[in-house]
Design brief:
CATH class of the largest domain: Alpha Beta
Radius of gyration: 23 Å
Number of helices: 4
Structural class: alpha+beta
CATH topology of the largest domain: S-adenosylmethionine decarboxylase
Shape: elongated
Order of helices and strands: EEEHHEEEEHEH
CATH architecture of the largest domain: 4-Layer Sandwich
Distance between the termini: 36 Å
Number of strands: 8
């Protein structure tokens, strides 16, 4: 159901509300605009299972299968590679999978029992389930979690933006 609300249209150069004289603004009822591109889960895991962190096939399988578990659409096979750092204990495995909704990436540091996982999606997903799943899959002992709302000004409805812009252009006179 589309909800309506009133928008006050003002010129882009408007810097304050002092005088709503002629030509400064008018009220119009328009389609409600929803903003926000999507959620970005960032999980840093400590004390994870070293054998899993160093197993390139395990990481590949995780990236290959996990999108289905959170109702995402994989649009390419995962890309996974082993990295050997100049400092031997900094070696690890990195990988990502592009999903229609954005991406899932992972970086492991087996010698430090650490991994980082990012899930960025324009489609809502069950963040708590993802945290629980990843923690169990990699046997994480402690984690840091960040959840970002990305693209806060990204218009979710093209129709609402189109209507908004049409009305804005029509009602601004210089």
């Amino acid at each position: 159901m589309t909800k309506n609300f009133f928008v006050l249209f003002l010129p882009h150069s408007f810097k304050g509300v002092k005088n709503f004289g002629r030509g400064w603004g008018m009220m119009r009822e328009v389609e409600k605009m929803e903003y926000g591109f999507g959620q970005h889960l960032i999980l840093d895991g400590y004390g994870a299972n070293r054998e899993k962190l160093m197993d390139i096939d395990f990481i590949y399988d995780f990236l290959h299968n996990y999108p289905d578990h959170i109702a995402m659409t994989k649009i390419m096979p995962p890309y996974v590679f082993k990295y050997y750092a100049p400092t031997p204990e900094d070696w690890g495995i990195s990988g990502f999978v592009i999903i229609a909704e954005s991406h899932i990436s992972i970086h492991t540091f087996p010698e430090k029992l650490y991994l980082s996982v990012d899930i960025f999606s324009c489609k809502s997903f069950d963040v708590d389930k993802a945290i629980k799943d990843i923690s169990e899959i990699f046997e994480i002992q402690k984690s840091e979690i960040r959840l970002l709302d990305r693209g806060l000004e990204f218009p979710r409805s093209i129709r609402a933006v189109e209507n908004f812009m049409r009305l804005e252009r029509k009602n601004i006179s210089f």
